[in-house]
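Supplementary notes for students who missed Thursday's class. We covered one full example, reproduced here. Read the sequence, then the structure, then the short commentary at the end.
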Amino acid sequence: MKKLYKSLILVLAAGLFSTTASAQAFWGIYGGINTANMRMGEWKQSSDPLDTKPTFEKIRRLTFGVSLELPFSDYFILQPELAFTQKGTILSVDSNYGDILGGGTSTYQTVNNLDLNYLQLPILAKTRFQLTRPKPIYPYENSGKPLFIELYGGPVVNFLLNPRANYSQTIHEQNALTNIDTTYKVKSVGTQAGMKRLDISFAVGANLKWKWNKKSYLYLDVRYSLNFLNVNDSALVNIYTNENTGNLEAVSPTLKNSGNLALTIGINTTFTKRRYWNHPRVIKRKF
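Structure (token representation):
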């Protein structure tokens, strides 16, 4: 399966960067901030009423990438990208255990800062509308700087590169026999095991694009991604008591990326003279 994912990435990346110099392609680079979170499916309550359901807090991380803009007309554009995006969440859960023999209790407050680093392959379809038509200043025909708005959407393939966990646990022990309370912390940083590698999402967004010279554009972009696949294999486990058998059981609840809202700035430029990517190249002959 890993070989399949790697082959898919290589094929799509090769297609992204194989456009020849004769095509009117606008190359771009962008970067910014991505707000991310996760959402969980059904969670079965533990037999201990003091145990709480995990909670999730959003995080803000980086996103950056390169794009290839292929205009088929003034209004329709195809844009494949290759991007690196950080997703994840801050997961918190409290657990309580009673020591019957000692008559004490132990409280565990767990916080896991989960960072999921993804390689993304978006394939976006865009439409463009011109907002302003400033008149050029004679004799500089390209001195007019028009402003455009673009709306887009498309599927995104996400491949998890490196899941990182910054884990901390505060343990508070109460001993009923000695009447002594003890509190200490356990911390660890490392790779988060039990996460699935593949995620599929759909991105929608809009940008304001300013043509600041004959061949280049500056833009401000906002994008929201809706994720579809469960990415939890065994990273988060729900242990509960089966009401019918009275036995402890463990299941892995559904866990999905959510709330992915990215704000980026970028630049597009071209190195050719053809107006549209799909127009034939004009060859000038010398006689």
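Commentary. The longest strand covers residues 147-175. Residues 2-17 form the longest helix (16 residues). If anything here is unclear, bring it to office hours.
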